Amino acid sequence: MMDAREVANRVKALQGSIAKSEPADIISQIETMKKEVVPTEEMLRVGHHPFPPAWPSFSVHFQTTKAGLLMGKLRQNANKDIARAATEVVVKWKKCVEQEKAAKKGKASASPVPKPASPAPKPAGNKKKFEGDPEKRKFQDDGVDVKRTGSPTRDNCIGLIYNGLAYRSTEPVDSVLQRAIEVEHAAFKAFHGESKEYKEKIRSLFQNLKVKSNADLGKGVMSGEIIAEKFVRMSSQELMSAEMRKQNALLEEENMKKAQIPIAEKSMSESLECGKCKKRMVAYSQAQTRSADEPMTTFCEYLATA
């Protein structure tokens, strides 16, 4: 359970995300507070009722967090996903407070000496290392709810990135999910919504994360060495492992050598034009000098004399 200082820090971080208008970050932080904050009656009464003198510094400390007041305002947010997440938090917190009040009332009637109610149990979170088969790991099997944005397409993309990051990883479920949400949000922002480029990029990132020889890519994203904004902007070359880039360079060098064939093996073209004499006596050949998914390179030799 978070203490008052931790709650205050969470509130400040959430206020910062609100100021920057980052919906994904706002929702993510609301979800964290929903899981980890166990409220008291005083916490939700912030700004509405005075604190009783029988509750000393603990009540005052929660008063400074303004967590209840902030969640109340977010329920009216124009973004329906933020409003929904905040509403869920308020409903849960109110339920906790009602349980707390009932516990106090029950103890008061049982004994003339008032005793503080036992704190509500901490909401379950999954911070444990994954212990199953990491090569078969998927969000469905991990019991992860990827419905975070209100859009089926975006939620599916979060699930796809989760599967890529979780592949051959033992990182906790919560950690993998948080990174997957960050990556999807960065891609959504970089490629202007659910565009064709956005979907293609998500698929490309997933495919590169699933390459066994490219394990460092996923580790870099999970550690924070490769931040989400950088990850979604990396080229196909940058996403490759160092070993794959080396192999491609050797293949390109070898293909370039093979492309240097005698003129007798070259074909004549009537469509290519000499840049100097403007005549069409041009010999050409083609060779695959780069990886298989790249177009062939055309080599031209102008035979006409000026």
Q: Could you tell me how far the N terminus lies from the C terminus, measured between alpha carbons in angstroms?
A: 85 Å
How many domains, in number, for the residues? 3
Low-confidence stretches at least 5 residues in length (pLDDT < 50)?
Answer: 46-64, 116-124
Which structural class should the secondary elements be placed in? mainly alpha
The level of helicity is 40-55%
SSE order: HHHHHHHHHHHHHEEE
Strand content: under 5%
Largest sheet, in brief, is: 3 strands, antiparallel
Q: Count of helices?
A: 13
- Specify Rg, calculated over alpha carbons: 30 Å
Strand arrangement, major sheet: 1-2-3
* Mean of pLDDT: 78
Counting DSSP E segments of at least 2 residues, the number of strands comes to 3
Note the overall shape. Answer: elongated
Describe the structure in brief.
Helices cover about 55% and strands about 5% of the residues.
How would you describe what is shown here?
- The structure is a single chain.
- This protein is mostly helical.
- The protein contains 13 helices and three strands, in the order H-H-H-H-H-H-H-H-H-H-H-H-H-E-E-E.
- The protein has helices at 4-20, 23-36, 41-44, 57-65, 67-74, 80-110, 152-166, 173-190, 196-209, 215-223, 228-231, 236-239, 242-259; strands at residues 267-269, 282-287, 297-302.
- Strands 1-2-3 form a three-stranded antiparallel β-sheet, with helices on one face.
